[in-house]
Each structure stands twice: as structure tokens, then as C-alpha cells.
Amino acid sequence: LPGLGGLRSQFAHAQGAWIAVGCALEVLSALSYVLAFRVAFCARMRWGTSYKIAMAEQGADSVLPVGGAGGLALGAWALRRGGMSAAEIARKTVAFFLLTSVPNVATLVLLGVGLATGVLPGRASVALGVVPAVVAAGAVVATLAVGRLARRIETPVREQTVRSRSARVAPALRATADGVDEAVRMLRHGDPVLLVGLVGYMLFDILVLWASFRAIGSAPQLTIVWIAYLIGQLGNLIPIPGGIGGVELGLIGTLV
Fold this sequence. Notes:
Elements: H1 7-12, H2 16-41, H3 47-63, H4 69-81, H5 86-117, H6 126-158, H7 170-189, H8 192-215, H9 222-232, H10 246-255
């Protein structure tokens, strides 16, 4: 492929120690996901079960990159087989999806403002810093608004006749509203295990990318790698098999 001719030589001269560090960091990221998953869905779940379901979700997300929905769908199926009610799974799935997005959104705002104002080290245009920060802040407001709107609409929809098509939307509206409320409640409660899991899941994954750059002799500043990673993650919303292409477009574009 054009532009990839020197890839083999770069790998041949890569530093094995940094590659090992990257692999270890990726394992820590995946294990952090297991921590967050267990607290969000059922703190009484056996650790072995939590590990199997959470790691299966991670694998599904790699094969079905649709913003994390593929892994969550697999997890929902496993939890249903385990006896959890459909309503509880729907509520907790919405909450967990929001919780795993919180560190990304929060740090995107902080990094964007920090880079735009020059407080944080790194060469980045004002637009590159401000625009993602504004979008991330808007996403938080929109999420809370959607939760309230779903709560307001759900009651009259539920009161429709059972055969009405609109009545079938009620469970989804209820799950959305309850999921947003539960995510906010869990953040306010501040369970340390949950917070460590959420932050570690994102942080270690970003450090994997940073370590990979170091392995091939490049050393971009961590702040630039960080914001490029966060913007690149938006590519997960593009349903491309294997996840190859979507994330890279945002990532490479930001770095350039």
C-alpha cells in the first residue's frame, strides 16, 4: 500500500522494551474495564464471571466497532442468560455506556482548553483545542437533556394502549431515562473501584499509543497523543469491519 513501504524496517528496528511496555499497558487497560464493568452491573458478581463477560465485550468491540455497542450487546446477552432482567440490563447498559465515556469527554474539555490557552505543552492550533472542547461540553449537556426528555415522554407513551406502536417505545425511553439517572448517581457516589476502572481503561490505552511511538523512535508530547486519541475514538462510531480506518482517520488527521 502507498506510504507503508517502510513499515517493515520500522518494526525491525523498534525497541522491544517499549513494545513490552505497550503490551503490559494494554493488559492493564482491559483489566480496568473489568473493574468498571463489575461495579456498574453487579458488585456481587463473581470475579471470574465479570472477567469473562467484560473481556468478551472487549473482543467484540474489536471485531464490531460501532461505538462500543457491539460489546455491550454481547454483554447484555450474557447477563440475560445469567438471569438478570431485561429492564435492569437495559438500564445498566445505558449507564455503563455513559460512564465509560465520561473520562474521555472530561479530559477532552480540559486538554482542549489547556492546549488552546498554552497552559499545557504541545503545538496545537486554537481551533484544534477549542472545537473538540466545545463539542465535548455540548455532549454532556445534550446527554442530561435527553435523559430528562425521555423521562417526560415515557409516561404518556406508556399510557397508550398496549397495541399502539408508540407504546412499544416506552421501554427504550424508560431505559434511557433510568440509565442517565443511574450514571449520574454512581458518579456522585464516587465508588473508588469504579473511578479507578473508568480512568484506567482510558489512561492505559492512551499510554499504549504513546509507548508505541517511543518504540519506533518518535516522541510526540503526551498531550498531543492524548487529544489525538480522544478525537480518533470518534471513528469508532463508523461501522467498519475490524475497526481499521475509522479511528486512524481521526487520529492521523489530528497528529498531522
